[in-house]
User: Fold this.
Amino acid sequence: MTNVTKLFQKLVVLALVIIGGVMSIQASWLPTKAWLSQQLINYSWQQSITAPKPLVAIKPWPWADTYPIAELIFQRLDKSIVVLNGGDPTTLAFSAGAVAPFNQPKATNPFVVAGHRDSHFAFLEDIAMKDVISLVDGQGKTQLYQVKNIDIVDATTGQLPLIADEQTLVLITCYPFNQLGNDSNERYVITAKPL
Amino acid sequence: MFNSNKNLRLIDYQHSYFYQQKRKKQRRKWLKFIILFLLVTSVIAVIVPFARAATFNQELPAKMSSVTENPLIQGPQLLFSHPDKRQRATLPVDITANIEVNGLVAYARIKQVFINPYNSSVSGEYQFPLPESSAIKHLTIKMADQVIIGQIMEKQAAKAVYQQAKKQGKKASLVQQQKPNLFTNNIANIPPLSKVEVTLEFIMPVNITKNSLSESVFNLRLPVAITTRYQSIYDQKTFDKPNSEALFHNAKEALKRIEYNSEVLPKAIADNHTAISISLNAGASIRTIKSASHNIQTQALDNQESQYLITLQKQQTTAKQDFEISWQLKASYEPQVSSFTEQIGDEYFTLLTFFPPESEQVSTLSRDIIFIIDTSGSMQGSAIAQAKASLQQAILNLSSEDSFNIIAFDDNVSLLFTKTQMATNHNIAQAQQFINHLQADGGTEMYRPLSQALVMAKDQQQTAKAIRQVIFITDGAVANEFELMQLLEGAQANFRLFTVGIGAAPNGYFMKKAAQFGRGSYVFINNSEDVQKQMTALMSKINHPAITNISLIFDNLVHQETEVFPKKITDLYMGEPLQITVKSKLPITSMQAMGDSAQSPWYQQVIVDDNQSSKGISTLWARRKIENLLDSLVTGADKAQVKADVISTSIAHQTLSPYTSFIAVEMPAELLPITAKNSAKNNAIKAKYQMNTLAKAHENLMVAMPRTALGWHQQLVIGLILMLSAPLLLRIWSK
Assistant:
């Protein structure tokens, strides 16, 4: 074997290790970021429910473009998540996000929350019918909801029809849960009605 | 000889064929191992999610079946609660549709007759797929001994009625819309071998599709049929395939038996009939009328060829397809204004429809355009890329007559120029560079850029007549919507605001309302492939306003109390007719419409023909009135007062609002005479009678579904495979 081929082989192996390493680190950075940001978001949420009213948006970090607006607690699954304002990709990378125009928990409107199936909303897979979800709003009030519907809908149009004048809690994530990749044409939609 | 041979063998031992093979085999073994490893990992990666999905399906069989059941509803039908699934659906044996089209509003009255073919009394559910953005006005279900009447009531009243029915021990059921625009209503105790007659009245808009920039086609679609899809879905699943032929046969047989007993039933409903009659008043001369679905007969009703009576040709009367009709207007070089009136009580409602000219050669107005682009953190990723692409596209569409400027904002505002500049090559190149350097980061402070755009100075070379157009590209993620609306509402300057929604989940409500307050329009770009198309369409549309600054002038002495909606009249664009509704105490016989066209001021005397009453106009007015009342909440109107006004308007005009619901009340047949007008008074009387069915129609909205997968699993698996393959390669090569 010549020196040239040996050098070539070494380079190839090195390149593979570096590319693979970078990809793995980058991939694991996404869930790490999601987890780290949760700590900051939880802190800002605790601050904002104890803050004097009227409520001022308390951002989890100074340059954030969003703020926590509610908290969802899933008692049976022993999970809870703070919901941020907005359904854009940046917000969803940090936590579950409330999608405009249904981004305020009110008695006359649905409240629509979207989250990633492979980070914050991964546990939605374990949600069953009649599960109770409690929603804490910015005033610190708690409203209980019960799961009434679980649908798998086609999302090629990107639009979900909703009854706009009823108090419901709608949770959206991608479906199927354990599929690889990030382009899914189906959504898992959980609808819960107030108790 | 023999020895030397032996020697040779010893020397060349390592290179012998046998060992060469052995080493090759060893190498192959490694190769095989690597390939196997790679295969297994990739197979696992692919199979695991599928396997999970499969077990999931088995866990929830009931849910899946309900998912597949829903798309069956394509035409009006009555679902009996029959134990045999195949026997449930029944289709109307007779459909009569009367449709009145006035300009761009269609008022439909559809009467359907269903037959209960069974020898026992059953309960059923009536389903009707309403056309898109239609509003239900009235419902009557007639049976042998009961009548169900649906109307709009205040939510509290509807609840009280419902509670009372429950207290009386009746089987009260609150039926909701399962899918948007699917109207459903429960009917209990349908007597054996009897007839159910359902009359449904609703109002729907005429759809407009553009053939070219100025030519448009008007069309209307009625879901009065069993479409082919209805059967094909059943065909796939043979086990519960309903024998629709047999069903029809059953129904017909039953009908024959009924006919034996009574001679009242007309012979006409012996088969599955559809009778459609449309009185079309387009408001301007019609060039062609076509139906892609049915053979139709047309009959002109006036000299201008603007009114037609359309019926089905005799040889084709079975309902196998949705009914579709489309028409085109005669080309005109002048804008046309048509008028329709309706009298409700002692109030008069007038609808003005402005049709833009249909001509290719249009002189363009020069414009003073300001682009505002949102570069806040929520725009990160594909949204900012789309926004930049659409802005680049828009800049290329500017003509040398136009002046422009760009404002980019997050929590800071950065300007391209301090005032608007003419669209010279130099300035455009500068703008392109400016756009390329934009990056999404930081917060969203919309108030400052918007207020700056409204008062920014014009280039001195630009003419005074040039219109200020503001194009706002954003995802609308704002917390202070109300403040922005107040800013737009209170703005003194003459400007038009167009909003362009970007990204997976733009705040549609904000965009729509902002455009309305700014007398402009809105467009959503969901898909990055559509950026160029949609942006060019918007730019060429706002490039050719046919008439701007439209105003109406009434005789002020006679008409002191007129209410005009929309309050802020938008401009008239090519291929987009405009509707204005007016309420007055006295019938309006004439008015003056004024505005500016590209070359000269525009003026037209509108003579209103009040001999003919057109249906649906008060509804259109009431819808806009309610919308306006709700918008006034934004600018600080009294909540209780607004609520009271909305409820009274909603009930008087039978138009759905957030404070009212559509409910169906059952009552004995002798207490029939209830019309939309006096229904409010009769509510108290009605509550005394037997009620056991309640239906509720809801306002529906679409909400965007964002992409909700990070996809980091896939990347991690690929990364790990790459890292693992490195030592394996080393191993092979070192052998």
User: Anything to note?
Assistant: Chain B touches chain A through 74 residues (CB under 8 Å). The first strand of chain B starts at residue 77 and ends at 80.
